[in-house]
Amino acid sequence: MVLKSKLVHTKFIDIASKNNHLEFLKLLNLLDPINLSDRSNHDLSLKLFIIKTIIGQQVSVKAADAVWSKVKPVVDGDILNLADLENKGLSKMKKVYVEGAHNYFSKNKFSRSFLKKCSKKELEDIFLNIKGIGPWTLNVIRMFYINDEDIWLPEDLVIKKSLMHFFDIEKDKNPFNLYSPYKTYFCMYLWAGSKLFK
Predict the structure, then answer these.
(1) Between the CA of residue 102 and those of 29, 40, 63, 96, 176, what are the distances in Å?
(2) What is the CA 51 to chain-centroid distance, rounded?
(3) How does pLDDT run across 149-170, given as a tens digit for each residue?
(4) Which of 102, 125, 135, 142 is deepest in the core (most CB within 10 A)?
(5) pLDDT tens per residue across span 104-117
(6) Which letter does DSSP use for residue 169 in this model?
(7) Domain ranges within the chain, ordered by starting residue
(8) CA–CA separation, 105 and 92 (whole Å)
């Protein structure tokens, strides 16, 4: 994966140069190659990965990590009820989402290798009927659990802001398409870049 990240980085520099994406090119020259496997959670089961992702929705990384450290021991087993999630830092709605995801994925096991073979429609059928899992969460699952290298997150606010910062959206309509089949990496560069202009 380290070799892959270097190849993607070099390819992105080439694309940015050819398309006159000068601000993005500056970012690429500032950053080391980004490795997808560094962001993937190979040690977490699908159930725990999804619960951790739900906890991370719409909160800072620091806040999400603090809540996750309290919730993880509670959701590790196969049985859970809402009372177990009291005083863990979750909103009422997130408690419902966590309980629903926990109960569903404790009963329904999907291996990573099975999910890798599923079409987008099949993945939507598995995940989008579960409360708390919308398109953004499903795409995060596809990126960092299934390791799909070509996922774009149009709903992500940080990516939207970063895209406007590094690209001339009037001139470069949908620049992310130029960075296919590595849009997952493209998203990771935009996330990394957002930290530099805050």
Answers:
(1) 42, 20, 21, 10, 34
(2) 13
(3) 999 998 888 999 999 999 988 7
(4) 102
(5) 999 999 999 999 99
(6) T
(7) 2-39+151-194, 46-144
(8) 20
Cβ neighbour number for residue 70 with a 10 Å cutoff: 14
CATH of domain 46-144: 1.10.340.30
Q: Which residue has the tokens 């380290």?
A: 2
CB of 70 closer than 8 Å to CB of 153: no
Six token digits for residue 60: 């800072």
CA distance 22 to 166: 8
Supply φ then ψ for residue 192, to 5 degrees: -60, -40
38-42, 74-78, 81-85, 121-125: the lowest-pLDDT one: 38-42
Residue 32 DSSP SS3: coil
Tell me the one-letter amino acid at 180.
S
- What one-character-per-residue DSSP string does 63-103 give? HHHHHHHHHHHHHSSS---GGGGTTSS--HHHHHHHHHHHH
Of 76, 81, 55, 80, nearest to 137 by C-alpha is 55
